[in-house]
Amino acid sequence: MCSDSKLSRLCRLVDDCLRPYTESGVVLVTKEREILVTLSQLLRQVKLLTQALDSDSENGPVIGLDCESDCMCLTKIVTHLIVLLTVESQYVKHLTCNVLVAVSEFLAALGSNWGAFIHLLCVCVDLAITVAIQCTSSHLTTEADDHHSGSSSLVLVLKRKLENADWSVAAGVVRVLHDIRKYLKTEDDDVLVELFFDNVNSVLSTVPWNLLQGIHVGPNLVAQKSSGADVLFQRSLFLGNLVQFLCSLAEQSGSMEAASGSVDRHHPIISTIINLVPKLLCSCLDEQADCVNFNKCISQYFRHKLLVLMIRLIFQTCQEFSIPVTWLQLIHKYFEDVLRNPITLKNDQDDCLEGSPFLSSVSDAEVNSLSSRHLQRQAVFLFLRCSFSLISTKGGTNKKCACTTWNLRLTCDSNAELLCCGRKKGLLELYNWLQGHLPANMTVDHEMYFVECVDFAKSFIQLYIKEDDVLFKVLLHLLCVPCCAEQDEKEKVALEDSNGNLLFRVSDLFNPVLLFHLFLLELSYDHQVLLDYLISKDTGISCAEYLLRCLRKVCDSWSLFVEFLVGGQATNQSFCKKRKVSLGGSSSWGEDSVAPTKNHLTFLDDEPDEENENGCKHTQNGGQYFKEAKECLLSLKISIEGLHQKNLFPYNPNVLLNRLTRFQELCFEEEK
């Protein structure tokens, strides 16, 4: 008997309920209805046992197995339930997974053997994958068997029960682990989380993923075996559950680090997942894409989830030089098509229903068209993140490289030399991407340079404006672009292209003041929309951070903010000579160079024009765009103050109000 009477009681409950169906190891499909009723009753009983433990303060620590009898109890519970996952009925699988999650919650409330239970689940994942590989491809049987040649007696017991396992069993156990992870997120128990991550990391590190890549359900298998399509579906289900689970692990690991204040180290599971990314991309996108009747919706789901995973991981590994380099190669291999899609949105294109469950009835072609913008946002953001991570790296240059002599230009043929220097590698990637989205004749001294900068920035904002969570991520990230683009004079010369531009002056294209103006313009200067962002549970923190940092830059670059203009279509070819301050803070046009005038731009304000000393007309300071932005931000300040006075604002907005007060003071000075 188990040393813990409560665990013993649970074991007897599970055994009495399920032994009639699982003792032989083969569950009859004809008893599906009976099994469903039994599982429903069992689930209810386990939850009642858990509720009875909630008020029990004598629970011990969450440790491994207390004794051999405890091991037998846990093994019996797990094996009964795992056998039910081999049943073809999706309803039986679903209820079985729910019971396993309920058992996990019971053991966590009990305070003992929870870690051992998680270990058993991880062992089941490993065994199920190995058996599924053997069943799918017989020539891999020997290698898969070698993987467990030294297994313990506990593993052997589970292995006998999993002789009929397939990919759906592995998918089911992964789903259970995912649900347990969500439970841990609500409990906020560091001991449980650490045990969970350690066990999951152990199985992720030992599963023979190289064998998984060797499985390919192609035309021959589908033609020869009626179950070929089912195997493909089950494998896709497993991979989908696995990628979703890894996304949640990456997210929770990041939260753990933020809570502990550690930004330089992460749990070893992050490194394990990073090593899995290339294999997952190959398994989910390369191999399955060639399979017969591979659903486009599944393909798009894989692409979306893998991009989400990579984005979450890159935020935790920004100091590691090799990861951005590797992932840029993966982006080009698997997402080059969406990366090269035009930034500008067509007039008749609308993706506002993207991701909606109401799209389930549309065709694959329509789904592919609708989801391309979403994938483009993710792919471009990941690309920029990797590129700028390399640009901002320091000290990674090979001393023997030609880069150290500052005589290497981006137009040279020796791209191999660029690979030794992370900064130049990142700049080259960015340069090549911009080349595909900017006019071929765009140069700093071109008469329409400023207009084209604004047009590109506006299209870039419009790309992200419909997806709030990604919008603020990319806007916050681009706040560092001018700093990345600012180099010393020798480096500027080395990184110029044949037209004498520093990557078309990236600091002009992504200038934070320009992007902030266009961001407000896309919101129609509606301060209520900004307020909604600020109080939203999903975007509140990121929006507040973005406003704080932008307001500081606005106050530091006040004249640029006041004199902001939005480019339009050229109306004639007349222009005049004058010195123009560029968006990057340096001179874009010399005193004798040409600069676009109002004739090249479309303005919203109707203020009278004034002539400068050269006889050229320009708009007065405090044009319509500045006025609209000023009214929007000052109205936002009033709304925040009103809510804060009534204790209705969800967090302390004093820092933001101080920054808005400083902005208001500068507005008053401008009016004098």
TrEMBL record:
It comes from the Eukaryota. Residues 629-665 form the Protein Lines C-terminal domain. Coiled coil: none annotated. InterPro entries: Lines_C, LINES_N, Protein_Lines. Residues 429-563 form the Protein Lines N-terminal domain. This is Protein Lines C-terminal domain-containing protein.
